[in-house]
């Protein structure tokens, strides 16, 4: 009886962890350090494609690059929405399996493994998009992006220290 309870607890914990990390607004480890989605796959000297388009004048994107990046981003986002819906359906199926009178551990394990694989597919797709966008850029544009990121990081540190000072002043 204790073994079954332990097994059910472990499966529930793993499924909850997978479900939470699959949510669109989950930021994951490192979010306090200013990292955005992508986690360990995020390139520190590269902006996400949407931000590249917003900073197109500073980077020096030409209209052809802008159109290609926009099209790639649109295609990726359409795929991500559909794929995200599939991931949520898998999470609902897992919840149904877990709340059944008798838990089918083989089915639960298969669903958990499938969710983990889907999570990996999503990260790989983001990485592939980043690689494809980077291939469109010139070395000069890549250098400008790295410089923009450095400026952004230093401004973030300045604002963080100012917030800390204001908090200390309020306490005093």
Report on this model:
The protein has 172 residues and is mostly helical. It has one domain (2-154). Helices cover 77% and strands 0% of the residues. The protein contains 6 helices and no strands. The protein has helices at residues 2-22, 49-54, 56-59, 63-99, 105-136, 139-171. Helix 1 packs antiparallel against helix 4 (63-99). The N and C termini lie far apart (57 Å). The model is unreliable at 31-41 (pLDDT under 50).
Can I get a quick summary?
The chain has six helices and no strands. It is mostly helical and 172 residues long. It has one domain (2-154).
Poorly predicted tracts of residues: 31-41
Q: What is the chains' assembly state?
A: single chain
**Amount of helix:** over 70%
Label the structural class.
mainly alpha
Principal-axes shape call? flat
Number of DSSP E strands: 0
Q: Mean pLDDT, nearest integer?
A: 81
Count of DSSP helices? 6
Number of domains: 1
Q: How widely separated are the two ends? A: 57 Å
Radius of gyration: 21 Å
